[in-house]
From TrEMBL:
Native source species: Pseudoalteromonas neustonica
Cell location: Cell membrane
Enzyme class, spelled out: transferase
Gene3D superfamilies per record: 1.10.287.130, Histidine kinase-like ATPase, C-terminal domain
Domain of life: Bacteria
Reaction(s) the record says it catalyses: ATP + protein L-histidine = ADP + protein N-phospho-L-histidine
InterPro entries reported for this sequence: HATPase_C_sf (IPR036890), HATPase_dom (IPR003594), His_kinase_dom (IPR005467), HisK_dim/P_dom (IPR003661), HisK_dim/P_sf (IPR036097), HssS/ArlS-like (IPR050398)
EC number: 2.7.13.3
Keyword presence, Thylakoid: no
Membrane-protein topology: Multi-pass membrane protein
Protein's name in the database: histidine kinase
Keywords: ATP-binding, Cell membrane, Kinase, Membrane, Nucleotide-binding, Phosphoprotein, Transferase, Transmembrane, Transmembrane helix, Two-component regulatory system
Ranges for domain Histidine kinase: 268-482
Lineage: Bacteria, Pseudomonadati, Pseudomonadota, Gammaproteobacteria, Alteromonadales
Ranges that cross the membrane: 20-39, 179-202
């Protein structure tokens, strides 16, 4: 059984270079073709005018040979000066008429006794050029002129008696057509060469113009965000490329920071889980080695449960941090009485901090209402209160103050520390798994609370910040838009 494979049509990719080259080449080619065509037509017209001028000159010369001697017409033609009209050549012809009767013919026309050149009525001192098939069968043109014979006698000129003549000369146009053909071929070849030359030059110019973009692409290929801090550097600045380069550098720097944070977070998670896992292994090894020791078996189960609960707390907090940092959490906004909400939170935290009622000083209006997601607000405020109660000095009160304006509600939680935090600590306080030295020996502190708070604030468009206050006090400021 043969399987028929259907190939999907390949989508042609757009190319800036190809589009620029094609468009510029097309515009310049149209301009060049227009110029060449105009020049070609002008040269063709000039050559044809020269041919007609040649006919006019010959006609004028022949007219001067016709004399009127007191009413007697004479035609003084010398064949040695105009051999083209000789019988031997038979290439050009002329014929003279007087009163519609043939007065004189060229020797070349004598070979064709029964053939006359064209003759029709036109005004005196006018001429007309027509296409005409010559007596020898060649394609040619004929010039018909109506003129007055020159009078030699002065008395005759004053008498008013004139004799009019009609002169027709004919010449082949083969040489004219050959010249016109050569001119057309030369211009066509020149035009084709010019079009290809223009495209070649445009391609070179566009390639040179796109060099900074290609150079930027090559630099991007060499980037490695897993290594040392790297940015895209420019040997020379290009006005159109610099904004792209700057934004790419910002993106690269941000991703390098995220990568480093991810490495640190992975290391910290491994460290946090390594300790309880080591404890589980140690307890299990001791229990296996001394199965009959009542001191070990009496506390083994409770120790295992406590370590497992610590691991579960770490995993649950990590999962909450991951959910808070994504759009997976659906917000359900509702009206909340902030005073009652904080009172309920303090009651829930009393099992961890028995002195919370004595230490927490509330400054919040009884009827103050806000609109927020209850789960997110509960998680944020419970972590902030727990953090303040744990790190704050037990002998100093914790102040929680709420200020509401037309545009926002600001919740400030302030507690006293043994010593103020450094600027570096203030910047890192919301980082995942970051712990102060005082909490590293506590098995219940994992450095995830404020990181969860920060992620939930970003999800809800809240702002959270930490500032040092006088007398070694730390203020955590939560701002909610109204």
């Amino acid at each position: 059984m043969s399987l028929l494979k259907t190939e999907l049509p390949k989508t042609k990719r757009h190319s800036i270079k190809r589009k620029l080259v094609n468009n510029i080449s097309a515009v310049l080619s149209i301009i060049l073709v227009t110029i060449f065509l105009t020049v070609d037509l002008s040269v063709d017209s000039w050559v044809e005018n020269q041919f007609h001028q040649s006919l006019t000159n010959k006609s004028n010369y022949l007219k001067t040979l016709v004399k009127d001697h007191n009413g007697k017409l004479e035609f003084d033609f010398a064949g040695e000066f105009m051999s083209e009209y000789e019988q031997a050549n038979a290439s050009e012809f002329y014929q003279l008429w007087h009163e519609q009767q043939t007065f004189e013919k060229s020797d070349s026309l004598q070979l064709y006794q029964n053939i006359d050149l064209p003759n029709f009525a036109i005004p005196i001192n006018e001429f007309k050029i027509i296409d005409y098939t010559l007596p020898n069968g060649e394609e040619g043109r004929a010039m018909i002129s109506h003129f007055i014979a020159q009078q030699e006698d002065e008395a005759a000129r004053g008498s008013g008696h004139i004799k009019t003549m009609v002169l027709t000369i004919a010449a082949p146009i083969s040489s004219l057509n050959k010249v016109l053909l050569i001119i057309d071929v030369v211009f066509i070849l020149t035009c084709i060469i010019a079009v290809f030359g223009v495209r070649y030059l445009v391609t070179r110019i566009v390639n040179r113009g796109l060099f900074p973009l290609n150079n930027l692409n090559e630099q991007i290929k060499l980037l490695d965000i897993t290594g040392a801090s790297q940015t895209i550097k420019s040997d020379f600045q290009v006005e159109e490329i610099e904004p792209i380069r700057n934004e790419l550098n910002k993106f690269i720097t941000t991703n390098q920071q995220l990568y480093q944070n991810e490495k640190r977070l992975t290391s910290d998670i491994a460290h946090e889980l390594k300790t309880p896992i080591s404890e589980l292994i140690s307890l299990s090894e001791v229990a296996l080695r001394y199965p009959d020791d009542e001191r070990i078996s009496a506390t083994y189960t409770s120790d295992i449960l406590a370590i497992s609960q610590r691991m579960k707390t770490i995993v649950n907090n990590l999962l909450l941090l991951q959910r808070a940092g994504s759009s997976a959490v659906e917000l359900n906004l509702e009206s909340v009485n902030l005073s009652d909400f904080i009172t309920q939170l303090s009651n829930e935290l009393q099992f961890k901090h028995a002195d919370i009622k004595q230490r927490l000083l509330l400054n919040v209006a009884t009827e103050l209402m806000i609109t927020a997601d209850r789960f997110c607000l509960h998680t944020i405020l419970s972590n902030l209160l727990d953090n303040a109660l744990f790190y704050g000095l037990s002998t100093q009160p914790i102040n929680l103050q709420v200020e509401q304006t037309e545009y926002h509600t600001k919740i400030t939680l302030c507690n006293a520390l043994a010593k103020p935090l450094s600027e570096q600590q203030l910047e890192a306080i919301f980082a995942p798994l970051y712990q102060l030295d005082s909490s590293r020996t506590n098995n219940q502190r994992h450095g995830l609370g404020l990181a969860i708070v920060n992620s939930l604030c970003n999800l809800n468009n809240f702002t959270i910040s930490a500032k040092n206050k006088p007398n070694s006090r730390l203020a955590l400021i939560l701002t909610l838009p109204n």
